[in-house]
Amino acid sequence: MTRIAALKQTTPEHVTVCLEDGEEIRSTLGTVTELRLYNGRELDEERLCELRLVSGRALAREKALQLVSQRQMSARELSRKLREKGFDEQAADYCVSWVTEHGLLDEERYAAAIVRHYSAKGYGEGRLRQELQKRGIPRELSDEALEERPRDTGKLDSFVAARLKDPEDRDAVRKLSAALYRRGYSAVEIRGALDRARAAYDFED
Fold it and tell me: For 38-169, where are the alpha helices, taking DSSP H only?
């Protein structure tokens, strides 16, 4: 059994619960109200564990709301960022579930936005999949987002045309093929783009 020695309000929404044994628990005004805390109240081990759990979740939820309001992110990114801020795995998992249930975290929409962004920059499917994986998008959602992307060879052909002056220059073709591979294009896509470039070159001749 321990006793609350003081409730110190640190901000309009935050309170530090000071216990007589010297422990200090960061909490929120809402938690203090919810658990009916006051100076001098005695807390048994069960109530103390409840205070730590509810306080941790409340603070983590605040941070989660701040993070998802700044930009779109995946569940894995949100969990990682919360743990980096010092919250434990249990609190992070709780917040991911909470923001998802409230429609504040939409991985399907996020995946589609990533695909649109990198497609517009002229990257191929391999690079798009890499970016989706890096951001923690589940494989099923990644596949769906990639399936929905526009199949436009225009950016690829423009990239090739700007960098390949002579399609018969083997060294230039090799370097360009390596660059396209790094941008996430498959061997089939690269070969197709080079064939179109050669056809255009022959036509101009």
Answer: 45-70, 75-84, 89-101, 107-120, 125-134, 139-148, 154-163
The answer regarding whether domain 2-101 maps to CATH 3.40.50.300 reads: no
pTM as predicted: 0.74
User: pLDDT tens across 59-99, in order?
Assistant: 999 999 999 999 999 999 999 999 999 999 999 999 999 99
Fold of 107-148: Arc Repressor Mutant, subunit A (1.10.10)
| 189, 157 contact by CB (below 8 A) | no
Q: List the domain boundaries for the chain.
A: 2-101, 107-148, 154-204
d(CA 75, CA 137): 8
- Closest Cα to residue 150, out of 177, 190, 112? 112
Domains 2-101 and 107-148 equal at CATH topology level: yes
Whose tokens are 């306080």? That residue is 55
